[in-house]
Amino acid sequence: MIYNKRMLNNLRKILTITVLSGSFTALSASPIETPNSPSNEIKQFCKELSNKLGTVKYQGCLTLGLQVATTRSVEDRPLTYREYVPETIESVPKRPKGRILFLSGIHGDEYSSISITYLWMLAMRKHPESTGQHWLFLPLANPDGLLGQRPSTRMNARGVDLNRNFPSPDWEQLALPYWKHFYHKNKRRYPGPEAASEPETKWLVETIERFKPDAIISVHAPYGLIDYDGPEHATPDNIGGLEHKELGTYPGSLGRYAGEYLNIPVLTLELRAAGTMPTEKEIYNIWQDIEEWAELKLKRKETDF
Ligand SMILES: [Zn+2]
Fold this sequence. Notes:
The chain is α/β, with parallel strands linked by helices.
């Protein structure tokens, strides 16, 4: 059963406003629903983000209710998050909620993945209860990669590919040799001097330990597919027009660390282009399929109690 109609309707409305007309006036004029006014730091963050990404609007970003983590990026930018907790809502059947960690922008030059997450968070803002899941969004895991340099970089400010820096048990033995021999020291895949050497990676690891997600969804571009690592029961079908293909994992990748080592379902969305957004219909379809996946494939958790 899908009971997310209100959020999907809201998403449809947002997409119509932002994608079709290219204007955000109608939404940004609506009352701000977050309990506290955004801090100066969030204002600065939203300013930088909206200057960089055409889809992200300053006023819209302010309404997301972003929180700032205590850990900061290498260049001292805030690491931001937003939790959506559906517990108090009557319309949702009483059952243990899935906890889903939603990550984007771990690679700073994959613009579409960050923009699409922003749109989904706007939709979530109005009806967080409608999915029945407990979401934790980290909309920009590598802010220095996106905002620190022109052009933006895949890596963080120290040139580390954060998606090779996770402390998988084989990191010490394999990460650097693998980078040297398989990637011929390609700078875009540098795993770092040691496992979890980067503050951004440490923060992601701590977040996983603290939040204990039932699933992790990570958005990337531009391979145009779905990848999955983790327990069999949550293996996805296609998501939107993206087909499920196994890419495999690497020493220090999120898939190897969280999917294979911690046995958490890790769903990776690879959008088709880094610089161009999917169509409105595709954005909508992807979200709908993500919710269906969470609803159907993570259901096993109900019997764990
Ligand atoms: Zn990526």
